[in-house]
Amino acid sequence: MPLGRKKSNPYRLAILGILTAIILIQNFVPFLGNIPIPPLNPTIIHITVIVATLTLGTKDGMIIGAVWGITRMVRAYTVPATPLDWWLWTNPLIALLPRILIGLLTGWSYQFLKKFWPDKDRISMAISAVIGSFTNTILVLLFIYIFYGARYAQAINVDLSNLAGVLLVIVGTSGVAEAIVAAIVAPLITNPLKKIKH
């Protein structure tokens, strides 16, 4: 079903509820949302936001992204995964804004690609998923660099002058891996959800 076509309210609310529950589980159950490789803990939660966007539309994708961001902030306060959590992930510009923008940029990309390639829906979803994934990775690392550069460099025992290079390596490793997984998994989940009768 095209991204712009409206789903019935029961369908929309059901999918939003399911994806919200998944976000909560991914945030609080070890290994279901984050891969515990300190200090940043690479994530697969972005796939849930991307699926929400591709299935329900840009607005709902942004809502699920906001749910993730808020939940991540709560988790940083209550059950931090690393010593860095309490000051990195309690900042809404790091924890919340990139997650909302996953929905926005994934949705915009998908709408554009659907017009450009109307008969290649799976490819459009995969490319949009990559864009959404990199949106999260790049913005989170950029804001960490801007707001906590010196402090973060000290915490991971890296000279500040080398921090940008270290963060670029993260983009090129974890970021690429997250994007590839999103490109493969998001269309596989989205297609069945779009076919559900309502």
From TrEMBL:
Keyword flag Transmembrane: yes
UniProt-listed InterPro entries: ECF_trnsprt_substrate-spec
Entry superkingdom: Bacteria
GO molecular function per UniProt: transmembrane transporter activity
Matching Pfam families: ECF_trnsprt (PF12822)
Record's keyword terms, sorted: Membrane, Transmembrane, Transmembrane helix
The keyword Transmembrane helix belongs to this UniProt entry's keyword annotation: yes
Entry's transmembrane regions: 12-32, 93-113, 125-148, 160-189
Descriptive protein name: Uncharacterized membrane protein
